[in-house]
Amino acid sequence: MKKALITGVTGQDGSYLSEFLLEKGYEVHGVIRRSSSYNQERLEDLLTEEEAKALIDNKNFHLHYGDVTDALNVTRIIGEVQPDEIYNLAAQSHVRVSFDMPGYTLDVDAKGTLNILEAVRILGLAEKTKVYQASTSELFGKVQEVPQSETTPFYPRSPYGVAKIYGYWITKNYRESYNMFAVNGILFNHESERRGETFVTRKITLAAARIAQGKQEKLSLGNLESLRDWGYAKDFVECMWLILQHDKPEDFVIGTGEMHSVREFVQLAFKYVGIEIEWSGDGVEEKGVNKATGDVIVEVDPKFFRPAEVDQLLGNPTKAKTLLGWNPTKTSFEELVRLMVESDVKKVKNESKTTKMFD
């Protein structure tokens, strides 16, 4: 039985990857940070009651208290588990928040990656343990070519992207310096019903569900012109696994090869709750109006703009399709949005009408 260690196990990707690996017959170990609340609460938040019970009660699923910023702790956990595969999904991954917390983002996303690689090296596991580093399309930032592939030059536009640049290069450096099977998956935007509620896609689908049910008046967003390559997180974790099963360590772009605007995501999400939006104005004055009622339900708020914008991201998944046999569009963009909206419609039905202090 193979052993896998997953950092960031309580996130969207960590939960899907845990389920995927357990189905493959792995013994799965997850790293969770200590908090004053129930330590499995985050997983139970993400999953349905049945999914959470199936995962947490699985005899091959184990949780460990830890933090990738603590080198001694990371070394102890890796030494105890002796994993065949490590998936480093731990990160401060909210791009806008990285501008407010650049130091913390650096500690987790850059130093955390180094701590894992160095632990594998000093424990003498370089020949046994394969390491997957969750890299990001934000490395490309101010894109130098469209679409972006494994050879596209980097130009990050956020503290998050800059910190992840270090994670990318230190992974490659350890691979070349110590002959480690250490690889980067350059993940483009991937969403799901389990996406955190502060991320723009989930914010949109929740708002569509709440507005349709009379529990929210309007949705405030930043740049509606932003173009992104959005895939389904459940499909993307399969590619993470495939990268570690490849016969040699290589870096791969993980994207769909399709690009859509934030405005298009909004339009489709509201369509799935039976609301047709008409747009008027432009820039910060742009409004989304409910065609049936004339009510303004979408507006632009400059507070959600980034200090340095990333206008478009589009991945070229040719290498992953060709060498790994991965299907990047197993779940279409339209299906992804529908899945998220339907999940949030059910969630909102159980909510009381409340006003949130923070967006």
Automatic annotation (TrEMBL):
Domain of life: Bacteria
Cofactor(s) needed by this chain: NADP(+)
Stored CDD domains: GDP_MD_SDR_e
Enzyme Commission numbers on file: 4.2.1.47
SUPFAM superfamilies in alphabetical order: NAD(P)-binding Rossmann-fold domains (SSF51735)
A Pfam match: GDP_Man_Dehyd
Residues in NAD(P)-binding domain copies: 5-340
MF-aspect GO terms: GDP-mannose 4,6-dehydratase activity
Transmembrane segments: none
Keywords: Lyase, NADP
Catalytic activity: GDP-alpha-D-mannose = GDP-4-dehydro-alpha-D-rhamnose + H2O
Record-linked PANTHER family: GDP-MANNOSE 4,6 DEHYDRATASE, GDP-MANNOSE 4,6-DEHYDRATASE
Protein family (similarity comment): Belongs to the NAD(P)-dependent epimerase/dehydratase family. GDP-mannose 4,6-dehydratase subfamily.
Purpose: Catalyzes the conversion of GDP-D-mannose to GDP-4-dehydro-6-deoxy-D-mannose.
Protein's name in the database: GDP-mannose 4,6-dehydratase
Annotated gene: gmd
